[in-house]
Description:
Layout: H1 2-66, H2 74-147
Helix pairs in contact: 1-2
Coiled coil: 36-63
Keywords: Coiled coil
Amino acid sequence: MTAAGGIYSAWNQYQSGKAQESMAKHNAHILEQDAKLVEQEARENAKRERKNNERELAAVRARLAGQGAALDAGAPLSIMNDVASELELSVLDNYREANRRRNNLLQEASNSRYQGELAKNAGKTALLGTLISTAGSAANQYATGKQIGLFGTSQKPAGKTSKQTTY
């Protein structure tokens, strides 16, 4: 009975490790999908922001032109360049933040896969340890049973004598 229980326990430990690995792979896949979405959203947001920035620059240009400023030199050109730089910097900051989130998700996916691999290996190790322990317990119980005569006697059959040597 001990052997059957030990084998069952060992098998469950192995299966548990495999199940944890499978779940970790699934979680990693979801994290990778999320990372792709973050990247796609960042690209789309950057496109939208740049279109809005073009409109804002056009509005600045119109205001300056309405004031009679020459837009191709001097302070008005400097103002336009500064506004364009600030707007683009905002786009790049947002894109960099999205890229950081994407990289974090990919790192989490990698960690999840690694943890799954560890769980699978732990299940294998537990399986082997339990089988070895079960074999030792079964051998010990067999030896104890044999000593108390549960599996027959350890005495030699009657009628047979061992040779005695005389000196």
